[in-house]
């Protein structure tokens, strides 16, 4: 019997529904251990297969989905004949309603989405995907270690994306680094982490109107994309509107421009993460009047 491990098998970026927080974007790094007898090649299971087949299984079932606690009284879920679902989530601040292709959600057992529940789900999924000589599967889910640096949880949908990011309710746990006149500013980082805590970032042109639930205003977003039709109703005060698609390049640029507007005469550099290990850089302010530079950053340093 031998045990092998794979760290960072993948990162699952998703959102889930919470009884108090509403819709929460999350990013968990997936680590894996497999135990069993050695096969004819002298291996528990070929790393090549693990990194392809098991990563693909985890990504397909969890990544970019909205996770729902199937046994919660707050949830109403309806599967429609056209391959879409509609759902309602009645929580503390109001209601969340969504219409989306059925692959946009993952219904899990239990009354709340927890790390333990998702871990058990993934262990079952992986057990079904490994050969018979593998007798034990262990999964560890963990957040990126950002030390004391701030982060926010956001959800969004990119209607023009040719992959699963077009899903209207998927999200990320993202660090933010802000430099004011070349020096790291914990003040501004904390301010944006608070501003975007558990936020839905919506694109103004996807906004169809306001919907009232017992006098509480809710935004209604709606678009059609390659995978199907998407609608989302969510309390207005859990939303932040931007004039662009909510790509991380645009979000970094938006933050930099807002900072330059809020603190005139200063120069800002923003490193905004999208989940783990990637993001965008933008600059705005005194040295760069009226213009922000943005770029895609892959494999950026850990905060
Ligand atoms: N240049 C950009 N590319 C992508 C952006 C972006 O803002 N700028 N955004 C997305 C999606 O929002 C998506 O949620 C990112 O998810 P992620 O899982 O990190 O990306 P992949 O699916 O491409 O990577 P895997 O690690 O293989 O899941 C996509 N691209």
TrEMBL record:
The keyword Metal-binding applies. It catalyses: 7,8-dihydroneopterin 3'-triphosphate + H2O = 6-carboxy-5,6,7,8-tetrahydropterin + triphosphate + acetaldehyde + 2 H(+). This is 6-carboxy-5,6,7,8-tetrahydropterin synthase. Its cofactor is Zn(2+). Pathway: Purine metabolism; 7-cyano-7-deazaguanine biosynthesis. It comes from the Bacteria. Pfam families: PTPS. Belongs to the PTPS family. QueD subfamily. Keywords: Lyase, Metal-binding, Zinc. Its EC number is 4.1.2.50. It comes from Alloalcanivorax venustensis ISO4.
């Amino acid at each position: 019997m031998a045990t092998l491990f794979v760290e960072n098998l993948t990162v699952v970026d998703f959102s889930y529904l919470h009884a108090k927080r509403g819709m929460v974007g999350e990013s968990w790094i997936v680590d894996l251990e497999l135990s069993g007898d050695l096969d004819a090649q002298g291996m528990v299971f070929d790393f090549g297969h693990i990194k392809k087949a098991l990563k693909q299984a985890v990504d397909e079932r969890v990544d970019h989905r909205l996770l729902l606690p199937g046994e919660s009284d707050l949830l109403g879920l309806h599967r429609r004949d056209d391959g879409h679902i509609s759902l309602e989530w009645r929580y503390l601040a109001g209601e969340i309603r969504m219409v989306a292709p059925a692959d946009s959600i993952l219904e899990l057992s239990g009354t709340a989405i927890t790390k333990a529940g998702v871990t058990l789900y993934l262990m079952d999924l992986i057990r079904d995907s490994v050969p018979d000589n593998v007798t034990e599967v262990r999964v560890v889910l963990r957040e990126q270690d950002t030390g004391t640096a701030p982060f926010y949880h956001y959800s969004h949908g990119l209607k023009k994306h040719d992959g699963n990011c077009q899903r209207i309710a998927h999200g990320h746990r993202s660090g933010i680094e802000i430099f004011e006149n070349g020096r790291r500013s914990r003040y501004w980082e904390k301010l944006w982490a608070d501003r975007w805590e558990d936020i839905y970032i919506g694109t103004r042109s996807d906004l169809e109107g306001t919907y009232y639930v017992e006098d509480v205003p809710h935004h209604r977003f709606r678009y059609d994309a390659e995978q199907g039709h998407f609608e989302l109703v969510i309390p207005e005060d859990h939303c932040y509107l931007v004039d662009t698609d909510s790509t991380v390049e645009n979000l970094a640029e938006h933050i930099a421009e807002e900072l330059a507007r809020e603190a005139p005469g200063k120069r800002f550099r923003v490193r905004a993460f999208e989940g783990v290990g990637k993001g965008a850089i933008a600059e705005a302010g005194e040295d760069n009047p009226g213009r922000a530079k943005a770029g895609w950053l892959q494999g950026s340093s850990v905060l």
